Amino acid sequence: MIHGFNPPKRFLPYLSWREISALKDKENTVIVLPTGATEQHGPHLPCAVDTLICAGVVGAALHLLPDHVPAYAMSPITYGKSEEHLHFPGTMTLTGETLLATMNEIGESVYRAGFRKLLIVNGHGGQPQVMEMAAREMRLRHGDFIVIPGFTWRVPNAAGQYLSEKEKKLAMHAGHAETALIMALAPETVHMAYAVENYPPEFPSKLLSPDGRPACAWSARDFGPSGIIGNPLDATPEQGHAILDSLAKSWAQAITELHALTWAARTEPTWDKSHHDGFIQR
């Protein structure tokens, strides 16, 4: 069934329009939108890694929520802005403009249904700027809409305790943490016989990159033919379950806090890109 990792009772598409219309306190109900990608993740992991991780973490978090916190997951967005991986078969990419329009139009649908709190849990490191742009545009259009563009890994979690210092410094894609998490979420898709260690060279300018990570734009093939940027070889399912549990607890707490918080409602004219000067009175 399409609810995937989510508790069925917390999966918004399983509700009828009558049930959604009748929901109490929709203004403080948290709608969670997992946003992933379909792109190569080395020869040992599936192309669905980013979608599996954001959807799996959201589902695990919703399982932890107490009943008195109203929150629902939407179906994940499975395609993202993945041009940096387009040289590898299996990568399906949208342009930034298409993804931005998609996020805005889904957000408009959420708002039109009466919800006022939208949490985006993005699992792909190549598109946080698009999520931030979409959240800002939604806020400019609707002064009572709270839209948070989150990143799956940007909450407290246990991954760091398993990673080498080099992994923490230089890994970016299909490395230790992602491999361990997919071992927990979808073990049948992992083929460790094909896993290899592969790091990018340290960036030569300390001024432009104090930590040695690439400061310039890059594509995955810049760092070799495997598509891996990191070292997945030491990953284990046990580590993956521990990382998943820690991420789920943090996101459950974040959803709880978002449900409870208030934010300044705006009453001045709102913004509409279709209008010649950007602003219209509503």
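Next protein, fold it too.
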Amino acid sequence: MDFSEEQITRYSRHILLPEVGGKGQQKIARAKVLIIGAGGLGSPAGLYLAAAGVGTLGFIDHDTVDRSNLQRQVLHHTPDLGRAKVTSAKEKIGLLNPDVTVETHQDRLHAGNALEYIAPYDVVIDGVDTFPAKFLINDACYLANTPLVHGGILRFEGRVFSILPGRSACYRCVFTQPPPAGLVPSCQEAGIIGVVAGVIGTIQATEALKLILGIGNPLTDRILDFDARHTAFRERRIRRNPKCPLCGARPTITELVDHEQDTCQLRQPGAVGVS
């Protein structure tokens, strides 16, 4: 594809990079990224991927904009209260970069539609806020053979890692199954310092671009934890679990199922996630 003079100017700082250049920018322009959850994580991820020139951004979210979202969900502004999040997201992305095609899906992801939504995309970004949804996304991406960038935030902490199906540890290699219903408090009870969403969502966008370009070392087989109180990052190595029920030697999960429990994540040993 040929870029116009306006596009060459827009993406000039990318094109100057030897690791990107014109060919890399063309890869970005041809890429399709699905962001599941147009909230705290999906907002910064979406904005930076749009600014980078990702050709197609998909947003799936069933919710509408609430006043309590505005503290961290930077795609949405005060006049958007009550509007569908995907509609608000499409509008802001269009204002930032008209080159980007935005596909909106005002729907709740479930076992019956997950593969259909995920299959057309090259990379998926997990921006959801419940354990059941995170397990569903992980399972669907594995079955669709689609790279996934996981993210989770809670209070002053955040976490991100990338998953290449069949080649790196998946979410179930680390966290076997969702916690029992009622074990964790709600979003309103847990709380989140808004800027942590920006930090983690931006790292998720970085991971997506690296996967699209095929450069650097993605956050596979390692989890990056962030503690805002101490401005500290910690990396932990993880490995594929040969007994993983999804990607192990003898998988027991061969189709998608919906788990009960629709509350925001607090603590499964080592897990965070509120959007």
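About the second fold: The longest helix spans residues 194-213.
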